[in-house]
Amino acid sequence: MAATLGRNHSSVSEFILVGFSTFPNHLLPAFFLLFLLMYLFTLLGNLLIMTTVWSERSLHTPMYLFLCALSTSEILYTLAITLRLLADLLSTCRTITWKTCASQMFFSFTFGFTHSFLLTVMGYDRYVAICHPLRYHVLMSPRGCACLVAWSWVGGSVMGLVVTTAVFHLTFCGPNEIHHFFCHVPPVVKLACGTDVPTMALGVGLVCIMALLGCCLLILLSYAFIVATILRIPSAEGRHKAFSTCASHLTVVIVHYGFASVVYLKPKGPQSLEGDTLMGITYTVLTPFLSPIIFSLRNKELKTAMTKTFLRKLHPQSS
Question: Is the pTM higher than 0.90?
Answer without folding.
Answer: no
